[in-house]
């Protein structure tokens, strides 16, 4: 498996591809396929986060925070109307960073799960 498989992920950038290659370099090809499948199902697309964040400017705030599994912040965004829209604007500017932090955590969780399975054989 090479970068081609990771490049098929929507909205992926070079930094994320390098991260995934480094994270999975010790996996055998079958485990890498399992990793890609699990990671792809849990990963968030940066464009989706941006769109849901922009929806907060004209409607319900905090949807993007719920998508990123930040439930308390999502509730806080709803109650405070996105911190009077300032928090929503800041998140709209930083949507790639928010998504990258979430996806990085998910990739670590999936890799740890597969490593345990791999070493239990």
Overview of the molecule:
The structure is a single chain. With 121 residues, the protein is an all-alpha fold. The chain is 77% helix and 0% strand. The chain is built from 9 helices and no strands. It has helices at 3-7, 14-23, 29-42, 46-58, 63-67, 71-79, 81-84, 86-93, 95-119. The longest helix is centred in the last third of the chain and has 25 residues, at 95-119.
Low-confidence stretches at least 5 residues in length (pLDDT < 50)?
A: none
**Rg, nearest Å:** 16 Å
Q: Total number of helical segments?
A: 9
DSSP, total strands: 0
* H/E element order: HHHHHHHHH
**Mean of the pLDDT scores?**
90
Q: How much helicity do the residues have?
A: over 70%
Q: Provide the β-strand percentage band.
A: under 5%
Summarize the biggest pleated sheet.
none
Gap between N and C termini: 22 Å
Structural class: mainly alpha
Task: Note the overall shape.
Answer: elongated
Transmembrane segments: 73-95
Keywords: Membrane, Transmembrane, Transmembrane helix
Subcellular location: Membrane
Protein name: TM2 domain-containing protein
Summarize this structure briefly.
With 121 residues, this protein is an all-alpha fold. The chain is built from nine helices and no strands. The longest helix is centred in the last third of the chain and has 25 residues.
Can you give keywords for this protein?
transmembrane helix, membrane, 9 helices, elongated
């Amino acid at each position: 498996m090479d970068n081609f498989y990771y490049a098929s992920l929507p909205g992926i950038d070079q930094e994320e591809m390098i991260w995934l290659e480094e994270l999975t370099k010790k996996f055998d090809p079958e485990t890498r396929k399992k990793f890609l499948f699990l990671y792809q199902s849990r990963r968030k697309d940066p464009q989706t986060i941006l769109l849901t964040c922009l929806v907060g400017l004209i409607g319900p705030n905090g949807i993007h925070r719920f998508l990123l599994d930040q439930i308390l912040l999502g509730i806080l965004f709803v109650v405070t109307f996105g911190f009077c829209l300032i928090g929503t604007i800041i998140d709209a500017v930083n949507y790639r960073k928010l998504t990258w932090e979430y996806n990085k955590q998910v990739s670590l969780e999936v890799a740890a799960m597969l490593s345990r399975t791999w070493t239990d054989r």
